[in-house]
């Protein structure tokens, strides 16, 4: 009886993990939702110290949109914002 209960719990956890992974992969698969950061609004050098993380298309988390713009200007890369929040 206890073995059956453990198997049932493990099966439920596996299903929940699979659903979470599927939702996570769909967040990154939809390239049409990527947005271009508005770098013209930031006067560089220097960025505000506000913490509002964004996930870049290079799969790096930036503390805010301004620091992402600094990375774009330094490296010349075309990095988009995948979503607000960490990667």
Notes on the protein architecture:
The protein is mostly helical and 87 residues long. The protein has a domain at 34-86: Wheat Germ Agglutinin (Isolectin 2), domain 1. The protein has helices at 2-29, 65-75, and strands at 54-56, 61-62, 81-84. The longest helix is centred in the N-terminal third of the chain and has 28 residues, at 2-29. The mean pLDDT is 78.
Q: What is the topology?
A:
Elements: H1 2-29, E1 54-56, E2 61-62, H2 65-75, E3 81-84
Antiparallel strand pairs: 1-2, 1-3
What's the tally of helices?
2
Which second-level CATH architecture of the domain at 34-86 applies?
2-Layer Sandwich
**Given the C-alpha coordinates, what overall shape results?**
elongated
Strand order within the widest sheet?
A: 2-1-3
């Amino acid at each position: 009886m206890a073995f059956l209960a453990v198997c049932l719990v493990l099966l439920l956890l596996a299903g929940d993990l699979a659903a979470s992974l599927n939702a996570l992969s769909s967040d990154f698969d939809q390239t049409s939702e990527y947005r271009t950061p508005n770098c013209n609004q930031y006067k560089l050098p220097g960025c505000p110290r506000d913490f509002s993380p964004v996930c870049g298309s290079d799969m790096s988390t930036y503390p805010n949109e301004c620091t992402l713009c600094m990375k774009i200007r330094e490296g010349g890369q075309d990095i988009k914002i995948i979503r607000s929040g960490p990667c």
